[in-house]
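Milestone M4 deliverable, item 7.
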Amino acid sequence: MNKSPYPHDWPDIDTKLYNRSIKLFNAVKNMLSVKLDLHADQQVLEGDIFLFNHFSRFETFIPQFLIYEKTGAYSCAIASGEFFKEDNVLSRYLQHVGVFPHNHDRLFPLLAGQILRGRKVIIFPEGGMVKDRRVIDKRGHYSIYSRVTGNRRKLHTGPAVLGQGVETFKAAIRYAHSQNDVALLRQWKDALQIDSIDHLIAVAHKPTLMVPANITFYPIRSSENLLFKGVELFSDGLSLRQSEELLIEGNIMLKNTDMDIRMGAPVDPCCVWDWRTRYLMNSVIPEINTLDDVFTLNSRPKNWRQRLLGSYFIKNAQCSRDRYMEAIYANVTVNLSHLAATLIMHYIGQGQTHIEKDKFYSILYIAIKHLQTNTVIHLHRSLLNPDDYSDLFKAANKRFQYFICAAKEAALIDEDENSYRFLPKLCIESDFDSIRLENPIAVYNNEAAPLHTVRDALIDAIGECTHADKNKLAAWHFEDECRTLACEKHAYSKPLFDDVRHDEAAVADPTPFFIQPEFSNGFGVLLVHGLLASPAELRAYGEYLVKQGYTVLGIRLKGHGTSPHALRDQSWEDWYGCVQRGFNILKVHCPKIFVTGFSTGGALALKLAAEHYPEMIGVIAVSVPLKFVNPAFMLVPLLHGTNTLVGWVSAFEGVKPFIDNEPEHPAINYRNTPVRALYELRLLIAQFDELLPRVNMPALILYGDEDPIVSPKGAPIIMAKLGSKHKQIHAVKSRRHGILMENIGGIWDVIDGFLNELRALHVKEAMKLGTHSSQLGK
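Output delivered:
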């Protein structure tokens, strides 16, 4: 007799209601500030049982909707029986969108039937929210805190039991088919509502797979939000637990939180079956007539074989559980807060009470670079994009600063000008329901703890930081420039930016280049390309210089070589930052550097010269756009102001975001010129009255006498304003703009003369000072 408060069967999914729920979810998702990112191969999405960790209530209804978006498959889930105690709107809704009560006495047969029909099953095997993210106990074993018992326990074995049961029933189907038991096959076909016996046989031959997945939220915020304030306003008072959950959940939904859902390699629920299990199963499957028979092998066995097989299933489920438990936590999406928290807790474990800021930043950077090459862990996109981590050294990283501010607000750390101090509260055990508010550092550290690679990388970075290899750091910084290009390409490859892509014909490789000669003369040359171009513009010239013994670095200005839309989003400060980084990379290899810039690159080179870096000994500025041949360019500030106004009033593009351009080198240059880029160039040039008098190093100014883009009238003005005592100007007879790339008028030889003269002077000075010839040429 059925003692369950629920009916023997359960309503099937109402596909129309499910589809309406999907549409509602998409509408709500677009209103929220949470960014959902599903990382899963299509093959993984073909799994049957999807297992997720549980950190917030918000996440419990996300997986089934994402799976539907990707595969079109309906998913079932399990909820607390509390939701089904009363017959109300919520309970009826849950029943009809595939949610089953956890205490239904036929839960496993019902879910198995759904899987056999092609539905997915979503399970949170932790059985409740793990707010502290602590999944490893003091002995190094996997376990979680149970609010019910107050003790630690392992994850539930339910998913493994379900997977084994489905596989066993599939084996029974295959056996019935081998015995040509059409009547039994038809009975199962009808009970499962499957179209045909052939379809049933096909289902029986499909492996049953469990997919371990991890949901990682970043960052974890605890500040007040609208949801919390609204509930607090209309309630008589909130408990600690309610307040904590409203703060955390509200911030997840309302304050720009990344929600990375990462699915790992599928786990076979029968992967631990040995020959005894398989032998017993083969002897038992002829006795199976229903799904209920499968899931009562242990509780209501009909003979000794079933009892023994049931005991094997329990033991095997525990082994499978250990496998998917480890896989769930191995798929954490590692972010900067994980690294910072792990490093802090490591130092506390070593008895240290503070860390110097510069050392902290360096260790984090070194660890990031090592982890980028690790194929075992998964990094948050902010640890793969240098724009999000390269400013650590400047103490200007927004993500890191948020981590520090949250830690200071929680009274976990304090800081002075040079160091961070660890406060006693970091070592105090927090309450399970308040730890996300009281000690976010512990939460981040706990979440990363299963990933030994993270801790090992940080410990190794501590050692490397003490004896930093400047060449290695420079190589990493150059790699970051290449990574930035790849990230920019990816970001602007979306259909949103297709409006100008069909006009573009640039195919030349825009990658920055760093070339060292076989026999170095001890000098370096930094090459800076022009507006709309890329390092490809000066690659041939760079190779020419290398043959003369120069170490050459061709830097890429942000926004170039990818999409005109990317260039539209950059400022002149972004371009100048690239030049500075390129210079810093090159000076590790060369004590004396020349900087050569073409067009906009020439303007940036002159700005760098005005900063008086001791390693920079000469500047060559070619075709600097102080004035334009086309007077329409003088209207750019007005036009950009109009675009900005329209962009503020409307979500659509401005009046004229791009100007058509007929490039001399279409394989390198953009055809569409962003008005914003011309405006930024004007802002840069506007500083020349102040900058040029500060340039006191040797300078060479070159220009084309009939340049169709840059007015030749600008070069003499620049020459007159330069503060250099040693300065030269040279006009090249040319009706083309790209005189440096094309070596028009023997411009390379002209530059050679300038470089050789300065080299000779510096070698002579070095000899007087006793500097070794290998450092500054022979």
